[in-house]
Write a structure and sequence with these properties.
Chain A has 327 residues and is of the alpha/beta class. The first copy, chain A, is 34% helix and 26% strand. Chain A folds into 2 domains: 3-123 and 278-320, Rossmann fold, CATH 3.40.50.720; 126-275, Dihydrodipicolinate Reductase, domain 2, CATH 3.30.360. The longest helix of chain A has 21 residues, at 277-297.
């Protein structure tokens, strides 16, 4: 009997979840639910699309509902709401608001006897797991997180909001020298500017003052002013040809010491090189949807994060087989 | 109230656990127990050493007993025996015999109401965890494990058993070209010889036929015959000066694809660079000793592996704080 999944929303991330479910033979995508007009959406896998109000009829037909919405406005209300009726998984990624989100989801999930796993993906998600485990193993040390090379959607959107900009793609790139200093165990103090550079590809409307736009990007507070930023103006054709993917990735490093005199250095590094950020994130979500289903079957309820889920719950392989083949 | 730890044995690994406990302020090393004469052992941290028969008097004074013995002869009997009286952690690393060891420990642990966490360290251990999680996230792909550069104690011992050899140190070295092919997502088929080379540093007795020894090493079945092996003859002084450490490390990579047409590649890489193999292994064991203690407090019993332990149990930091600072 397969695990029945529903997805709320049908953006990039939801399609990533959809394609991930096709790779997991113990799962089945039942339907996609949308706040838009269902008749305008055709899913890649051919599963039906329903309006969100239909969800109430699926309480007994879906084991886990994946919430594909955004962290700014969708998930803060959706996750606590839908965990009243379904086991849910979300990818809430506003790090500063995770404690509040956790409390809201936990309260609703406990009351309903459901499981809600929040902040699933790679950061938060896999990167968090690695930071946490490495810190537990090497209590004396420093953590470093580098992102990229990859497309930052938030930064791309920020550029698109500038008057005269038709399209934009922003790549976050880790500074290799900084990464290598960490890898060597130098434990450097690194400023924001030391760790990443930002490279922007921008299509502007004809007749626009490019140098004014370049200056507006480079000096944009929060997004760019703390970084070394380069701006390239390109044509719409070049944008379509060279920048259609959503690659991403990054590194989590822990540099620690052990020994009676702290004489031995250790470097733990976890890195991701992802051709498709939403598809990898969707793949992580699919594995945690399996965990949500199993935890719920065992009578567990409440809000969980990647820290709370024993890794074996992620795998379709039996415990015996895991020990025999992967330990 | 700190977690009270005992250690059985006082070899390299046990000293690694001892130094790790000093870095974990929520833990306290109560005593070391030995099958040798306790009066001949002085611990680095000054904790007392008792003969192993004293252990029965420590049933209520130790929360977790770490078993520092070897996988060949010690642990197969020690872990099922001592889990009758203590929560235990071992580093059993004979991969092929893990299922049998698990069953033995599980039966004894369930009967006694204790927790036994087996095969803790980095391989098995952290590497297993990464293989398993990455495989769950990317079901379609290949796993690669490379070891080194590092000292293989088993291979060093094998050389030392050759007549005329006074001392030896064997380094396992991953073939960089092979690692890079995997990193590029080529998914190569790699033979044993393709993945690692073996470099040996050997001190021989005066008047020994070096070329005969070199040939005996290079052609030794199981240990060397399937590898490209180089042998360097060095003096005792060089051995003491250049090869006294026990560094190790390696890489676990998963190369997978996602997408409706499997068009997107993803590379997940976990790497360790360890100045001291036993101290890092001891540090992993200390974190899992914390988990054993907590699981036991919650009423859990039986045999566990790294797959079965939710990561939060490894950390001394509260769940709230973990979510706030590391998620």
């Amino acid at each position: 009997m397969s695990i029945k999944i529903g997805i709320l929303g049908y953006g990039n991330l939801s399609r990533g979840v959809e394609s991930a479910i096709l790779q997991n033979t113990d799962m089945e995508l039942v339907a996609v639910f949308t706040r838009r007009s269902p008749e305008n959406i055709k899913t890649k896998s051919g599963v039906p699309v329903f309006t969100v109000s239909e969800l109430e009829n699926y309480k007994d037909k879906i084991d886990v509902l994946v919430l594909g919405g955004g962290s700014a406005t969708d998930l803060p209300t959706q996750t606590p709401e839908y965990v009243k009726y379904f086991n849910v998984v979300d990818s809430f990624d506003t790090h500063a608001k995770i404690p509040e989100h956790f409390e809201n989801v936990n309260k609703a999930a406990k009351e309903a006897g459901k499981v809600g796993i929040i902040s699933v993906g790679w950061d938060p998600g896999m990167f968090s797991l690695l930071r946490m485990i490495s810190t537990s193993v090497l209590p004396e040390g420093k953590n470093y997180t580098f992102w990229g090379k990859g497309v930052s959607q938030g930064h791309s959107d920020a550029i698109r909001r500038i008057k005269g900009v038709k399209d934009a793609r922003q790549y976050t790139i880790p500074v290799e020298e900084a990464v290598n200093r960490v890898r060597k165990g130098e434990n450097p103090e690194l400023s924001t500017r030391d760790k990443h550079v930002r490279e922007c590809f921008v299509v502007v409307e004809e007749g626009t003052d490019k140098s004014a736009i370049e200056s507006e990007i480079i000096n944009m507070p929060n997004y760019f002013s703390d970084y070394n930023t380069t701006v390239h103006f390109i044509s719409e054709e070049e944008m379509a040809r060279d920048h259609k993917g959503l690659p991403h990735g990054g590194f989590v490093l822990r540099s620690g010491v052990t020994g009676f005199n702290k004489e031995n250095k250790h470097i733990v590094e976890y890195s991701l090189k992802l051709d498709s950020n939403p598809e990898f994130t969707g793949s992580v979500i699919a594995a945690y949807a399996r965990a949500a289903y199993r935890l719920s079957k065992e009578g567990v309820s409440g809000c969980k994060t990647v820290f709370d889920v024993a890794p074996a719950y992620l795998s379709p392989i039996s415990d015996e087989e895991l020990r025999r083949t992967m330990l």
